[in-house]
Recover the amino acids of this structure.
């Protein structure tokens, strides 16, 4: 448990020390001087995710992917379901890296996406601290395929914020090779970027249809049976959906106070609207797992809203920015404490075990 608290407290301390006295976008000189620190963050996250040992609720299930590709040719592997993740497994088998090779490569992709995404937010260290309790600890160490998809999706969202729609589509399509549900993000580009409503609808429907044809068509029946007909339930889904609901409501209340471009405002209001809709669907859905997995793609909303919130609240109430900053950190510290101590499946993450230490000692 100590490892998880160090992972949270270090960026929290950095946020307090480095981000209390400034407001607005990260200054260029500070951004340049902090590159080394963020490279270190990416390396540490990659190692902690990649070398975890018997950590995560689905730890044993991922060995099946390696067994499935063992002894097969690369062209056969690419034709499998989720070919991106299958290729990582094939490489790891061929190089004799075992499960740690897969997890290191997956961890690197996720960490790269998270670091790039945080560094494009006004308070990147605060955003990283917000990401640790659930996005890093639970998702990246428990849902390997979807974690990679999220890392790539975050690269796409950064590109979309720069109005690079083509790169957004590329990153999301690549994410869908790791987890098919990532294609559901494709219409966001049209809805956020297009000024003409009819163009936006046509672009959104067309991109979603293309994504469906490439990634979902052969699997939709299986997904429907597994998630809807079987009525899978995810323990704690309501709490996790509520965690997206909070920033969604905040954004709707103070959207004009956030330092967004108009395109960014439309994008994150869409995320907020989808988060609200998913919470409503959860209340009537026969499968909380299906809603819970889709809601994972809305997690970046938490990083965006809470990295802006100290400035929004300090301007609104004319208080020192350190007060809401401490409030955000306290809230996510509480989230981590509750999850580690009371979550139904937290035992799958406890204790954290690091393979090199396990092997040496």
């Amino acid at each position: 448990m100590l490892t998880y608290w160090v992972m949270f407290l270090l960026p929290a301390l950095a946020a307090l020390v480095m981000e209390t006295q400034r407001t607005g976008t990260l200054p260029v000189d500070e951004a340049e001087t902090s590159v080394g620190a963020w490279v270190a963050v990416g390396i540490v996250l990659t190692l902690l995710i990649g070398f975890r040992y018997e950590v995560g609720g689905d730890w044993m299930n991922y060995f099946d992917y390696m067994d499935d590709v063992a002894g097969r040719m690369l062209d056969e592997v690419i034709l499998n379901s989720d070919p991106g993740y299958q290729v990582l497994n094939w490489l790891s088998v061929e190089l004799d890296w075992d499960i740690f090779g897969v997890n290191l490569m997956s961890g690197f992709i996720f960490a790269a996406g998270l670091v790039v995404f945080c560094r494009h937010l006004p308070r990147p260290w605060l955003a990283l601290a917000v990401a640790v309790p659930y996005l890093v600890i639970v998702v990246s160490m428990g849902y390997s395929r979807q974690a990679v998809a999220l890392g790539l999706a975050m690269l796409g969202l950064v590109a979309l914020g720069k109005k690079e729609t083509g790169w957004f589509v590329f990153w999301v399509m690549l994410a869908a090779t790791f987890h098919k549900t990532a294609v559901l993000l494709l219409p966001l580009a049209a809805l956020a970027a297009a000024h003409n409503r009819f163009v936006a609808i046509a672009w959104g429907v067309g991109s979603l249809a293309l994504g469906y044809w490439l990634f979902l068509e052969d699997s939709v029946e299986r997904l429907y049976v597994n998630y809807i007909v079987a009525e899978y339930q995810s323990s704690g889904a309501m709490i996790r959906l509520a965690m997206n609901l909070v920033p969604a409501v905040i954004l709707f209340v103070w959207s004009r106070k956030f330092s967004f471009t108009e395109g960014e405002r439309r994008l994150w209001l869409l995320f907020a609207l989808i988060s609200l809709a998913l919470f409503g669907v959860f209340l009537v859905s026969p499968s909380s797992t299906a809603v819970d997995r889709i809601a994972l793609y809305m997690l970046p909303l938490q990083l965006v809203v809470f990295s802006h919130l100290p400035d929004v609240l300090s301007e609104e109430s004319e208080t020192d920015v350190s007060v809401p900053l401490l409030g955000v950190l306290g809230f996510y510290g509480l989230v981590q404490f509750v999850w580690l101590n009371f979550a139904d499946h937290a035992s799958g993450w406890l204790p954290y075990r690091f393979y090199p230490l396990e092997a040496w000692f």
